[in-house]
Amino acid sequence: MDDYRLFADEMADAIAAGRLRPGERLPTQRAFARRRGIAASTAGRVYAELVRRGLVVGEVGRGTFVRAAAGLPGAGLPLGEPSHARVDLELNYPVVPGQSALLAAALTPMLRPDALDLALRPSRAEGTPAARAAFAALLAQDNSALSAGDWVPEPEALRFAGNGRQALSAVLAALVLPGQRLGVEELTYPVVKATAQRLGIVLVPIAVDGDGLDPDALAAAHRTAPLRAVYLQPRVHNPLGLTMPPQRRERLVEILRWLDLPAVEDAVWAFLRPDLPPLAALAPERIVLVDSLSKRIAPGLSTGVAVVPETYREQVTASLRAGSLLPSGFALEAAVRWIGDGTVAAIGAAKRADATERQRVAREQLPDAVLRGDPGSYYCWWELPPTWHAETFVAAAARAGIGLTPAAAYAVGSRTPRAAVRLGLASPTLPVLAETLTTLGRLARSTPEEQVE
User: Fold this and answer.
1) Could you give the dihedral angle defined by the CA atoms of residues 351, 356, 362 and 365, in that order, rounded to the nearest 10 degrees?
2) Same domain, 234 and 378
3) Alpha carbon distance 209, 304 (integer Å)
4) pLDDT bracket for residue 144 (50, 70, 90)
5) Quick one: CA dihedral 367, 369, 375, 380, positive or negative?
6) How far is residue 399's CA from residue 394's CA, in Å, rounded to a whole number?
7) Do residues 332 and 391 both lie within one domain?
8) Sorting pLDDT into bands at 50, 70 and 90, what band is 123?
9) Which residues pair with 59 in a beta bridge?
10) Torsion-angle region of residue 164: left (phi > 0), alpha (psi -120 to 50) or beta?
11) End of a domain among 288, 310, 341?
């Protein structure tokens, strides 16, 4: 074996063992040659071999850097090819081409020692003036349906958390005491179910129809026993993918005011529907809007934000502090830069186009399926053929290497949920998604008995 390959193997082992970390800059080829006592031409061949293996990347004028590790073996391969990778249609991690390069460009100035020192200082629930202004502008721009002068969150109303889940947890803890009742859509975000259990909050399922939460069902539940608040997702509901039409939204706000109920509006996926304003625009005095950057950007650097009416501001701030749910100063500063330079807007626009394309693929590959979902959503609700139960279908899909989420994961109360599954469309590549959905379509046309091994 050529000597240069021995050196390349040694470097590859150091990368695999973590002794050389992703993003770490390697010595120059000349310095590497001097340290190893080899010719500069041999060092060049070592580095070229590492590039060929996909372990490092060279940047003109900057040097050679250890590349981030590749995905799991087999990731991105069609289902027909040998692979031990599982195709995940449970969790949604939308990433678009060029996203990392955009994010990296904004972070470079933060790595200067003075800027980094400032970003690593502790942060507060109130964030910084720059963060409040940036996020207020982002949330206002997020709603292109609004005319100038309509809903723009007051910067002083913003409160920050480490991520959207923490913001949601703090808001619920502030509004609803242990033992009190929280109205939720009968199929709701599973994290809300877990959070309510941890906080001792009683969840009350409210009926949902094709337009979203039924306001009259909400009023009826409140008459049965008073609710303390309502949690809902009026835009791009998870898991149903529904978006409330204007008439339903107006009726819901009317009921909230009549019942004197506060509401928590989850807007984490709402960036996919900027053509509609938030529910908070209609009743800013009683609706707490919760959002984050986890789906807009990536879960690894997520900042949660809540727009809190003055009535509840003190309680929410205290809840964030008491739960140690405060944001990372570094993530908050990074978010300010990403918002300010247009990175968040650019990635959001790309993800809206990507989600629309994935919905098209879902309907193309499952032409006979009963699918529900906003045309711009990253997920859809599949009501299965009558021959299948959700759990049986999920188990059969798992044997084919496909992960799905059954309706029961989202159900609140004792009512038996529909024989349905949620399809998360964001994580696989488009070719893998198309092949996976084709496989699921064949599975749905079979019977459970045919799948028994």
Assistant:
1) -110
2) no
3) 29
4) low
5) negative
6) 9
7) no
8) confident
9) 63
10) alpha
11) 341
pLDDT at 313: 96
Length of the chain: 453
Closest CA to 235 of 206, 209, 269, 264: 269
Position 193 pLDDT exceeds 90 = yes
Q: Of 418, 434, 430, 414, which Cα lies nearest the Cα of 382?
A: 418
Distance from C-alpha of 275 to C-alpha of 259, rounded to nearest angstrom: 29
155 located within any domain: yes
By three-state DSSP, how is residue 118 classified? helix
Joined tokens for residue 81: 């090819």
- Nearest CA to 144 out of 275, 287, 278 is that of 275
Question: What SS3 state is found at 63?
Answer: strand
Structural tokens at position 163: 């991520």
The CA distances from residue 230 to 203, 268, 323, in Å, are 9, 17, 22
Q: How far apart are the first and last CA of the chain?
A: 48
SS3 286: coil
Q: State which amino acid sits at residue 109.
A: P
Residue pLDDT, tens place only, 380-434: 999 999 999 888 899 889 888 999 999 989 999 877 677 899 999 998 999 999 9
> What is the total count of domains within the chain?
3
